[in-house]
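Researcher: Go.
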Amino acid sequence: MFRSEYADVPPVELPIHDAVLGHVAEFGDTPALIDGTNGMTLTYAQVDRFHRRIAAALAEAGVRKGDVLALHSPNTVAFPTAFYAATRAGASVTTVHPLATPEEFAKQLKDAGARWIVTVSPLLEAARQAAGLAGGIEEIFVCDSAPGHRSLIDMLASTAPEPQVGIDPAEDVAALPYSSGTTGVPKGVMLTHRQIATNLAQLEPAMPAKPGDRILAVLPFFHIYGLTALMNAPLRKGATVVVLPRFELETFLAAIQDHRITDLFVAPPIVLALAKHPLVAQYDLSSLRHIVSAAAPLDAQLAAACSQRLNLPPIGQAYGMTELSPGTHVVPLQSMREAPPGTVGKLIAGTEMRIVSLDDPAKDLGVGEAGEILIRGPQIMKGYLKRPEDTAAMIDEEGWLHTGDVGHVDEGGWLFVVDRVKELIKYKGFQVAPAELEALLLTHPGIADAAVIGVYDDDGNEVPRAYVVRQPSAADLSEGEVMMHVAERVAPYKRIRQVRFIDGVPRAASGKILRRELREHA
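Model: Structure:
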C-alpha cells in the first residue's frame, strides 16, 4: 500500500458554498470573476451577496432541500453564482454539457430527477425541448434574459428571506455530474458537500492559491476538473478567475496576455496547441508561472516542448476522476522542476493507493510494477445514483475504488499512468497502450492530432488502428509514412497496423479521447 507524504487533513464538515465562500470578507473588493471576452467583473463581495439573493429567490420559487437543479451553461461569470445559490437553497446541482442534444439532456434530467433548470438564452430552446421530453420540470430560469423566463439578474432584487437549510455535509449531495460515458452509459456521480470540500483541503498543500493569482477558466465548469481546479479551489483562496466560454486559440492567448494570467489548468489538446501552433509566438505570455495538465494522459516530450517554448518550469500533471471528487495525485507546484518527466504526481493528503495485478487482482504489486490503480480516501464518491450494482463494482467492501487505470509507482512515490484497463489493446497476448502510440504519433511534424484504438483484423487478432488528423501543410501524408514513423520507434508488437485519416479526433469537453465513438465508427 502506498500512502501520501502529506499529513492527513480532517474532513471539512461544511456545505460547499460555505467551504468556498466562508472567508469572502477577507477578499472584499478583490476581483473574483472576470469575463475574459468583455471584462465584466464581479468582486468577492458581489459573488457573496449575489448568490445569497439568488438562493432566496430560488427558495421563494419553490426550490427545496433534496431537489435537483440542472445547470446548463457554458463558462460564464454567472455559473459559480448559480451553483452556490442552488446549493445554499438546499438543491443538488447536476451539471449538463452545454452542447448536449435535447434527447441527451432529457435523459440526464429524467435520471437525475431534476425539477429545475438554469440555462442561458442561446441554449434555451434545447432546454425547453429537454424539459418537454423529460417531464417533471417546474421552471426554467436563465442567467441572462429571455422573454417568458425569470432571470438570475432579476432575482438579485429579491427581498425574500435567505433560506436557512439544514445541510448534512457527509450525506447530502452537492454535485451530481455525469461520468463522461467513454466506457459505457453515463451515470450520475453523487458527490457530497464533505467529499468536494475535503478534496479541496487535500489538494491545497500541493496546489496552494492566494490573492494575486490569476487563473484562466477555459476548461468547462460543468466538468468536475473545471468545477474544482478553476472554480472552487481558486475562489476558496481569494484568487481571480478569468472566464472564457470555450477554447478558441486566439481568444485564449489574448486573455493570457491582457489579463496577465499566472496559472493555467488545461488538458493535453491545449498543451499541444501551445507547443506547436505558430500563433503562440504573436502573444506576450510572460505572466505565466505554471501550467498543469490533467483529464487525459500528457506525453512527456510534448510537455517538454511546451515548457521550453514558453520558458516555463516543466508542466505538471494531476490525476483523478469524477468519482474521486476528483483529485488523488498532483505534481506539487514547488516540485515541478524535480518531478520525473511523464509523472501525474504524488498522492495528495489523506489518500491511499494500491497497484494490483491485472491477471490476479488479489495480488498487490510493488515499486516499478504496472497494474490497476486502486484508491481509498475521503474524496471517494457516495456512489452512482440509483445504480447500486455499478457502485459495488467500482468500490469494493474495503472502500477501495477501482479506477480502471493502469499505472506504476517509482521509488520516489511518483505515479505514472500507462492507460485504461479497458483501452489496452491485446495484440497476440501482448498489451499495447494506445496513449503511448498516440504520444509517438504526435511527434511527427505532419500530424496535428491522433487517436488509437484496437480493431479486429481478418484473422481475428486485435490490432492497433490509428485515426490521424493531418497538419494543413501535410496534405500528402500517407498511411505508409504514418506506420513507418511508429514502426521505427517501437517493439514489433506495438506497431500501428491500420491508419484512417479524419478531420478531427472526437474528444469530451475535458480533453479525453472518446474512443467509444471511434469504436462505433470502426
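Model: The mean pLDDT is 95.
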